[in-house]
Amino acid sequence: MMSHSYQPSPFIDAAAVEAWDEWFRWRDHGQLRDVSIDATWQRIATSLAAAETDSVNARTQQILGAISQWRLVLDERLLSTLGTGRGALIDDPVAVLNAAAFVSTGDSTEAAFDFAMLREVAGLAVRCLDNAAILLPAAGLSQNLRIGLIGVADALALLGKPFDSAAGRTCAAAMARALAEGCLAANIQLAAQRGAQSVCNEALLDLLHRRAMPAELLASANQHGLRYRQLTAITAHPRLALFANNVSDALDPMPQRATKSKSRTEVLNTTVVVSIEAQVELRGAMQPWIDAPIEYPIRVPHAPAPSSISRYGRLAAAHDLGELCWRVDATR
């Protein structure tokens, strides 16, 4: 387990503070229990680590490091109930990784994306949701998890890769591959430690080969089986994106913002109109590593013309994206 030191990362967006206070801050009969965001982090990390059989303190620090740096954002039902004594029936657990939080924008002349850290946090996300199932036995152990991404457009902007460019699609595909690899490694490890629910049959091994997963993971999957049949799914999580310092939701283009940290304001406040074709192409570049079809509604300023819908549909079908649908958002 990679060691992490707990270094709180403060809110850098006022809307995120309001989201935390309204949706995820613990109040008990009018009494404020989460006096700060750090209290929320500690409540969540301590609760989830309690499901471990050893290295509880190390796991607590690992979870704290991931959630406090906005890299891992857990299911909103877990955020609001873990450690409060209130139960939550969760049969479709969710976690998202905030791609923007894996971009280094320090003193170096060029921003870089930490794919190794993304793989590690993806594995931690699987473990956190498995721990939650142990802690909330009424929910039962699901056969599938939904671990996805938010902030992809923010990450591409920070890296200087246009959303609608080949370089942007290549980088997004690499994020999806790292997500799949990290999830797979934890899936196998949990199967070995806590019991498999699925065997790694020939069809699944073929899929993992096509995803270019490391040979050692394929051998381990064949030996131990899998804890979960499916792990990765990218869909809209507007509350979680808002909470994570108002990053772009899932694979949406970046919305216009008025507040960001000084180091990111110039980059992230640039609003670029992104075509539907570009959004479909980016989804298509990532789909090979995502278990569920990426088919959540595409945000558009107005409904597409009927003459264009069939063309978009053919493009989506070519990428195995499922049926396209739209969410009209006039504020874009």
The low-confidence runs, each spanning 5 or more residues with pLDDT under 50, are 258-263
Distance between the termini: 42 Å
Task: For the largest sheet, list the strands in their spatial order.
Answer: 3-4-7-8
DSSP helical segment count: 13
What characteristic shape results from the CA principal axes?
A: globular
Please give the domain count: 1
Find the count of extended strands (DSSP E, 2+ residues): 10
Q: Give the biggest sheet.
A: 4 strands, mixed
Tell me the structural class: alpha/beta
Percent strand: 5-15%
Q: What is the succession of H and E elements? A: HEEHHEHEEEHEHHHHEHHHEHE
Supply Rg: 20 Å
Question: How much helical structure, as a percent, in the residues?
Answer: 40-55%
What is the overall pLDDT average? 88
Give your account of this protein's structure:
- The termini are far apart.
- The protein contains 13 helices and ten strands.
- The protein has helices at residues 14-24, 37-49, 56-68, 76-81, 115-135, 152-158, 166-194, 202-210, 215-224, 238-243, 262-268, 276-286, 306-318; strands spanning 27-28, 31-32, 72-74, 94-98, 103-104, 112-113, 144-150, 230-232, 298-300, 326-328.
- The chain has one domain.
- Helix 7 (166-194) packs parallel to helix 9 (215-224) and helix 7 (166-194) runs parallel beside helix 12 (276-286).
- With 332 residues, it is α/β, with parallel strands linked by helices.
